[in-house]
Amino acid sequence: MKPFTKATLALSLTTVLLTTGCGGVKPTEVVAPKAQAAAQQQQAPENINQAPIPMKMDRKGTDVFIEMTAQVTDIQIDKNVTYNAWTFNGEAPGPLVVVNEGDTIHFTLKNIDPDVPHSMDFHAVHAAPSKKFIDVMPNEEGTFTYKASNPGVFMYHCGTKPVLAHIANGMHGVIIVKPKDGYPTDNKVDKEYVIIQNEWYREKDLDDMTNGQPSQVVFSTKALKDGMPNTNGDTFTLKEKPLLAKVGDTVRLYINNVGPNRVSSFHVVGTVLDTVYLDGNPKNVLHGMQTVMLPASGGAVVEFKVVEPGDYTIVTHQFNDVQKGAAAVLRVTEDGLDHGGKPMSH
Fold first, then answer.
1. How far apart are CA 178 and CA 187, in angstroms?
2. For the chain, give me the number of helices (H) and strands (E)?
3. Given 178, 199, 220, which residue is the final one in a domain?
4. pLDDT attached to residue 46
């Protein structure tokens, strides 16, 4: 990654602090006084690398209490490339959030980034952004309440101005709202995984994020249960360590393209998507799809049966993005175990 010069970084951070007013927070009320004071004292900080703080999540009936942390953490995105990312909980994409349709989410964001305000925009809820997606200043926290009334596979992201910089720097993730009556195909599913696509640009370079092309387009997986794979968005992990299934299994993938800029033509090589729920809503059902178009932030649930042993590559059919890393491997064996052979590549 091409780092900022000291002068550019100081100017960039000062600009972010001065222009931040996300969620309708009036500059004269909250943001400007703190931002101006910070700008006056702003020196170009060295990159910090804060150890990941696990997300906290507790349930009391239909009330779900979630605590996430905005922090700055180094993320390996390619074999020889580390990105000093703005993150939720030291992960990029951030930790997977799974709730049920009808739950009430009590969400707390702690911001331990010493320099930059951050916020949370959940695509899964109905809420006034000017009240419930507002900035949390450095070394402060905010708590907000939302109802999860729509089932699906939704993006979440930092909504602080400039939003593009915050998403592209790593502040994105997925929230799954499980349908209250489940999916009609629940009893047919043998294996399920989460696949997220995102892009990386030059580190903290808003001009490149706005006008350039991503240097890496990547896949990650997030654990639905303890012990399942949980990765950051990089070019290599899901190619070298395949996801696993057994011959005859019906596989379900919860997918989302968190962008911030590219579309995803989601495709699994060697099979047909038997059932597709667009945006993960059981009412939005399609059958026999070869490819599912995911706009930036778009999600889906896809299901397919694997009938022969072998490696099935998961890609975006925008193959210039595959060249930049956007591929994963699903390995299918007779017993569902990894035989350790070299995975197929595209």
1. 15
2. 7, 20
3. 178
4. 66
